[in-house]
Each structure stands twice: as C-alpha cells, then as structure tokens.
Amino acid sequence: MDSLKTGLKTGLLLxxxxxxxxxxxxxxxxxxxxxxxxxxxxxxxxxxxxxLPVATHKFELADPKEDVYGEVQITTAGKEDTLxxxxxxxNVGYEEIVRANPGVDPxxxxxxxxxxxxxxxxxxxxxxxxxxxxxAAMRIYYFPKHKKGEPALVYTHPIGVGKVGxxxxxxxxKIIAREENPTWRPSAGVRKEHADNDDPVPxxxxxxxxxxxxxxxxxxxxxxxxxxxxxxxYGVGLRSSHGCIRLYPEDIxxxxxxxxxxxxxxxxxxxxxxxxxxxxxxxxxxTVFEDDSRNWSKAQKSLLLxxxxxxxEKLLKSAGTQIDWQAVTxxxxxxxxxxxxxxxxxxxxxxxxxxxxxxxxxxxxxxxxDGADEVDSDAQSFQQLQTEREPQAxxxxxxxxxxxxxxxxxxAPAAGAAASDHAVPASPGS
Length: 430
Known about the structure:
Helix content is 23%, strand content 18%.
C-alpha cells in the first residue's frame, strides 16, 4: 500500500514537471512577439476633376461647307438645381433642355442626375447675314459683317417667341430703332388677355423690374414687333410672348452693343434642319408647332426634302453617299434637338450621347452670363408663363398628326399695315 501511494506521488510529480517543462527550459529573457499592426488601406484616389464646360454662343465659320457647330455636353445636376437653372447656365432655353432630357422632372431633376445639354446646332437653311431667327428651334443667329481676310462669325442664343394666337410672323424685315430702359405700352388686346387671366396690367409700364421688355429693345420694321430682353428669364425658350422675340438679359445686352441699326432680320420656321458636318449629312429635329399648317405627318418625306438646300444635295453626290431614310424617320419621330448623322454610316441619338463629354456644372468660361441676376426668376413666375405657353401635341412627336389649324401667314405684315389686337398687337407687346 505504501509503495502504491509512493508511485502515485511520483507519477503526479513527473506529470507536473512535464507540463511545465517548456517554461522551465525556456530562456528567462524570451517574450511572445506583439501582434503585427493592422493593415490600413490606402486612401481612395481623389475624384477626377471634370473638364470645364465649353461656351457655345460664338463660332468661327472657317469652312463654308460646315453647317454644324458646338458640341453636346452632359453635366450632373446638383441638389438645388432645376432644368431652367442649368439651361440658363449653359445658354440654352427651357424647351431645348426639356426636349433633350425626356422623363426628367424640370423642377426636381434630382441630385446626381446626368443632364444632357443640347449645345450643338445646325445652322438654319437661310442666307448667313444679319439676324436669322428659327422659330421651331427657338434660336436666334447673328452673322455680323466681316472684312475681307477676317473670319466670319456667328453668335447664337435661345429665345422666347409668340404663342398660339400671337404668332411671330415669318419673313424678312430689319432693325429700325433701339432703346435702352424702354417703356412698355401694351395693346388693348394684350391688356384684355391679362385682365381675363386675373393679371391686369396698366396702360403704361415704366422702365424697371416690372417691365417685361427688360432693359433693352430693338424695334423691327414690322409694326408692333420687337426683339427685347425680359424680366422673367424662365420665359426664354417658351412660346409665351405676344409675338415678340425675347432673349436672356445678358444676351440682349450684348446684342444691343453689337448689332447696328439697319441689320436685316429673317424669320423662318424650320423644325427639321439638315446640315453637313465631317463629310456626313446631319439632321436636327425639333417639335413641330401645333399651329404649323404644313402636314408633316402625311407628306413627311417631301417636306423633309424641301428642307434641304441644293448645296447639300451636291455634297451628298460628291461624297458618293445617300440619305438613310430609316435613320431620318427615327430622328424626326422622336425629336430631341440633337444633331445626328443620317447618311452613309448613320448614327443614333444614343451614339451622340455616348460621345458627349461629361463636364462641370458651372457657367462656361467666356459665357455672356456672369451668374448675377437682377430680375425675378422664381418657379412661381415660371408657372405663370407656363399657363400662357403653347399647348403640347398629344404625343409630343414631330411627325404625328396635329390638330387642324388656320393657315399661318408666311409673310409678315408690311410696314405701316393695320394690326389686329387678336393676332397682332396694335402696339409693342412682350
């Protein structure tokens, strides 16, 4: 029994020694190494700096064959942005930017939303001299005189034009007078319309922030028609005037200093613009006005061919290419106001947008606007203008059928002709 107890004690002692053997045999100065420090990931690369936007209100006409100027740009809407805000920044009008961005809420586009800025233009099919106004595009073009050896230039800006019942006439006239800080004397018809809309206006509106003519006006050779500024910039790019042509305040100020008296003014209505660019035929399509008497839905091909100049037909023939009518139909039936190639290897709107640069959402360097605004440009004022604008075609398509309308005269009233208070203001309207 004693020997058994002795054996158990010996076994326990040996087991304890075995368990502690590592520490007993280890060097007394040895320590467990500390864990490695945590791996800190490198900081993310800085956001790439987007290129500055390009000002697209002035172009040099270096090649007489070239008809397409500017470039489509894409920007990102900020938290407080509306489409009219971005339009003003980039010198385009309301309808232009809304048409280019179908499905986007004009007043809440949403922070981070990519916005197409339609700043590429096909020049109208008209002589490149003086002022040319394309009603369908709601754009004005000024081709100043230039001396031999100097480059020819064109300036372009968005405009507001006459609404249904107060159409801006087509034809040729000239600038006969200009005035700074004009007084507005609305016609009886204009005053009645305002009264019927619970928005009465006085017989005489002096210069100032309440004057719809803005700070500058040009008087045309047609009685009662003006080119002028506005105290409501959001009306630029809309059919909301009584026949006059409205410009952003900064654009009319530039024109006032640069456009001389006697400058010819040609007004056309060209919803489909064909132009030559980089060896191809391009088409830029705008929405047909509701009161356009031409039946685009039934005679689209013949009317489109009439939109082309003989010069373009010669260029097509010399280039050995033909019009892709399927591409033409696609562009014309879904007008976005974007220039798309429609000859040879025709393109698509999607291709145009894929090639467009993404730029900063800011006023382009060299633009006419400096960001300051001394006039009312709130949403409430815009909504008031919206109530006066042209009703939209049911499908919004350029070649869908439109309601029958009385023929619109293609020639403006001659100077001194009597003017109706219904269709033509008896005195300058806004």
